[in-house]
Amino acid sequence: MDHFLYRDGSLWAEDVSVAEIAAQVGTPFYLYSTATLTRHFRLFDEALDWGPHLVCYAMKAASNQAILKTLAAEGAGMDVVSGGEYARALAAGVPGDKIVFSGVGKTHDEIRAALTGGIRQFNVESEPEMRVISEVATSLGVIAPITVRVNPDVDAKTHAKIATGKSENKFGIPIARAKEVYAEAARLPGLKIVGIDVHIGSQLTQLEPFQQAYQKVADLTEALRADGHDITRLDLGGGLGIPYTRSNEAPPLPTEYGAMVRDTLAHLGCEIEIEPGRLIAGNAGILVSKVIYVKNGEGRDFLILDGAMNDLIRPAMYEAHHDIVPVVEPAPGVEQQPYDIVGPVCETGDTFAKERMMPPMQAGDLIAFRSAGAYGAVMASEYNTRPLIPEVLVKEDQFSVIRARPTYEEMINRDNVPVWL
What we know:
- The chain is α/β, with parallel strands linked by helices.
- It is built from twelve helices and 21 strands.
- Strands 4, 14, 15, 16, 17, 18, 19, 20 and 21 form a nine-stranded mixed sheet that branches. Strands 5-6-7-8-9-11-12-13 form an eight-stranded parallel barrel, surrounded by five helices. Strands 1-2-3 form a three-stranded antiparallel sheet.
């Protein structure tokens, strides 16, 4: 569910007309709904209310300060994967004891910053990383709380580029070696083992892979406790998918996911941590763009937009589908026609959709990419010296630009020209 609906013949975000925002902000831009963000967070939080838990929003999905503050006010923790994301979480007012640090390549400086500023735990990805955390913690005279991320070798049945739980993926430690890795962690100074971490991928549309992985974690928990380790937290990662098209079968609901977690893991008495990103932010955002030209090609027509692959890379990178709708609601019964929907970047890959059925369009018409709130703005670039596009947040009948579009001068002035030129 989202809060982008047609009203009086035009698309609205909560109680604000999308066309009115476009007139004031200019296109293209990202538009987020506060009501959708908070609703999706609460669904996860309520799905786990059968026991102690913390929902840590995966910031890599969308990390604008306004989004983080909105979720922090709901009680969310944060899952970060870089020093920059850690700094963003602190700046948004999230306390260190609600920040989980994930990621396969944590540096000395990032570890030091987190230990100095406060951290709930490091999700350790490798033995070399574990030793570095021990070294840094010892040098600071502090104790670093850790989980070890185990790779359960479970096929998430998702896109190959976002699968993380198979043996050939770069993430985590093979679950078969977990006991020896935990034994080493117990011997290292400056570390405190608090739990186990697992994350098998993103955009999962079935519960079975989760359940397979979590059963392996349950068995590992009992084995590690038998070895004398104090396992009190289970970090289950994120990955629950969203419906990118209204014609697809809907992925499992958070309530169904929460019931599966309860049935699989509740008997262990551990605090449950989950790290959803896409399901919280994905359908909470749209990308609004404008048709520059309608081009009649050889056997096909093109909608050339002012938005491009540098603004929304998912279709080019993942062959991802986004529903694309006109901002002005089509009249009932209007005949649709196929368009290739493309951007202005000088790449054939700058194609959002091929032969997408749309009502007749013309230059100046506004269109909206649905389900663009996750991995949209955060993955954008300035390729072709195209400015990063604005982000806008709506709450009820108000809207605010939460990231402004830079000018060409601001972009150019970030360059430093050597004195010899």
